[in-house]
Design brief:
Blueprint (H helix, E strand, L loop, with lengths): L2 H4 L1 H8 L2 H13 L8 H10 L5 H7 L9 H19 L5 H17 L3 H17 L3 H17 L3 H41 L7 H11 L2 H4 L7 H17 L3 H13 L3 H6 L5 H15 L3 H13 L5 H22 L2 H18 L6 H17 L3 H12 L8 H17 L3 H17 L5 H14 L7 H20 L7 H13 L3 H11 L2
């Protein structure tokens, strides 16, 4: 048995939220299992393991578990957990409710209780039409047709059958249109991953330009329903962002938001369409320095409620990180630090959620920036250390590189020069080996090498010269549209050094100049 296959039960249990684990324990107890094999004991021991260790597991378990039958026990527990998860999430989305209604319908149909089926069909159809879930609509129309054929009212049902056929064809056309746009959007996402470490390269920009010229993006008539219209607008906004046309991206996302009427905002929340559209609009408001408007949009996002726990987690992390970003952009560091203190317990509780590792990493990145601006470098390094303990850093190279660059400035401020010298050379080698080196990295490495060569720490003229060289290098890169999440903060740090002020003062000064 392969190591990967051997670990699948451990991986499943580790991926479960606290709510799901509590539900499984309740679910297990309700099944009324005999005490001959205690699967709950097996579940709890695996859950307590940090790294999967089968030999330790067998040693710890009760004698009722026969070693020879151990693979069977694990397989049965795996299936039991899947059943529990399905039950736990059976009512969290329109799709899951429709799925349950169709299961009930099928059961009753094969029992010959055709009259009972119509109530299930009616509820499923209403939801599928309300949320434009064409995959289920096609199945619903087929069931409708099947039930009509069981009915003896030929004169009435022949008209309904003709109408049903038209509805099926329309649902298939809508689904085909949606699949076409989904496929094209996925191509863009794969393109982004392909160039994730060379996001500013000419090759990437040329491919994106070619991608944007496609008829699915340019021809408005190609999008025939609300969902495809939103994808079309978002593809346009994404291109505008990559091309550093933030205002055009903002206008595109504003158009996307106007596609929803009040009823659709509620309807499309559960499958995340409205939420994602509103969140992307918030990011565009921040990109275009509409900070006052962004705080208003942020409050709208915070008030969204969903029965889907994963969507609620996403809303929490996205709004939390967006508010931290706004605090950094506006220099309102006290508000940001207060927010960190308020959300500390909840963030810690959700830090084990595998689906939100990127959100957690981004959260620690913003917290580290807050400490940098408040000049609390010790706590800043602690935030960086929390970031680097997560294995997911390999999936976000740009974020990982930025946090490493930030740590160098922290160690400079703490006068850890020996460590700084070692870190400068080791990071340069890592970036070169992983091919994630950028002009910004080179400019920062050059600065630190020059800084470490100083013979007289009081040589202010030489210090100012080094700061200005780094400042001019970053400004030149920004003019070439080569940007980073931390380049602005580095500039504010330099200005604070040159003006003998604080980073926070420089951000507030810069923010006050914005129109």
């Amino acid at each position: 048995m392969s190591k990967q296959h051997n670990n699948i039960l451990f991986e499943l249990i580790q991926s479960m939220s606290q709510v799901e684990k509590a539900y499984f324990i309740k679910f297990y107890k309700e099944q009324g299992f005999t005490k001959k094999v205690n699967y709950l004991e097996l579940f709890k021991i695996i859950d307590s393991q940090k790294i999967y260790d089968e030999s330790a597991l067998k040693t710890t378990l009760h004698l009722s578990f026969k070693t020879a039958d151990f693979p069977k026990y694990k397989h049965y527990l795996y299936k039991l957990i899947i059943k529990s998860l399905l039950a736990c999430h059976s009512k969290v989305s329109a799709k899951s409710i429709i799925r349950d209604e169709l299961k009930g319908l099928e059961l009753l149909y094969y029992k010959g209780l055709y009259n009972h089926c119509f109530a299930f069909l009616k509820r499923a159809k209403k939801l599928a039409l309300q949320y434009h879930i064409n995959t289920y609509l096609i199945e619903i129309y087929r069931w409708e047709e099947t039930l009509m054929m069981r009915n003896l009212n030929v004169k009435k049902d022949i008209v309904l059958l003709a109408n049903n056929y038209k509805q099926q064809k329309q649902a298939i056309r809508n689904l085909d249109n949606l699949l076409e746009f989904f496929n094209y959007r996925n191509k863009q996402q794969f393109l982004d991953r392909k160039y994730s470490e060379k996001i500013n390269s000419k090759a990437y920009l040329l491919e994106i330009e070619k991608f944007y010229q496609h008829e699915l993006v340019q021809d408005k008539s190609k999008a025939t329903n609300l969902k495809t219209k939103i994808i079309q607008v978002e593809l346009t906004a994404s291109y505008m962002n990559i091309s550093n046309k933030s205002e055009a991206a903002y206008q595109a996302r504003e158009r996307a938001l106007k596609l929803f009427d009040n009823q659709q905002k509620i309807q499309y929340l559960e499958d995340q369409w409205y939420y994602i559209t509103l969140y992307n609009f918030l990011l565009s408001e921040i990109d275009t320095n509409r900070y006052t408007d962004a705080f208003i949009t942020l409050q709208k996002l915070k008030t969204l409620k969903s029965s889907n726990p994963f969507l609620q987690y996403a809303i929490f992390f996205d709004t939390y990180n967006a508010e931290l970003m706004l605090c950094i952009k506006t220099g309102d560091i006290q508000r940001g630090l207060k927010l960190v203190a308020q959300n500390q317990k909840r963030t810690k509780k959700l830090s084990k959620e595998q689906n939100f590792l990127y959100h957690i990493l981004l959260n620690q990145f913003y917290i580290a920036q807050l400490y940098w601006i408040s000049e609390d470098y010790t706590n800043g390094i602690e935030a960086i250390n929390r970031f680097t303990q997560y294995p997911a850093k390999q999936y976000v190279p740009e974020l990982h590189n930025n946090i490493n660059l930030m740590s160098m400035f922290f160690h400079l401020e703490l006068n850890n020069l020996f460590y700084l010298e070692y870190r400068t050379e080791s990071l340069k080698k890592i970036f070169q080996r992983t091919k994630t080196n950028s002009p910004l990295h080179e400019a920062v490495f050059t600065f630190f090498r020059d800084y470490l060569k100083r013979t007289n720490e009081k040589d202010k003229q030489r210090n100012d010269k080094m700061f200005n060289i780094l400042k001019n290098s970053i400004i030149a890169l920004q003019e070439q549209n080569i940007r980073s999440e931390i380049d602005s903060n580095i500039l504010f740090w330099i200005e604070a050094k040159l003006n003998k002020s604080t980073i926070q003062d420089e951000i507030i000064k810069h923010h006050s100049k914005k129109p």
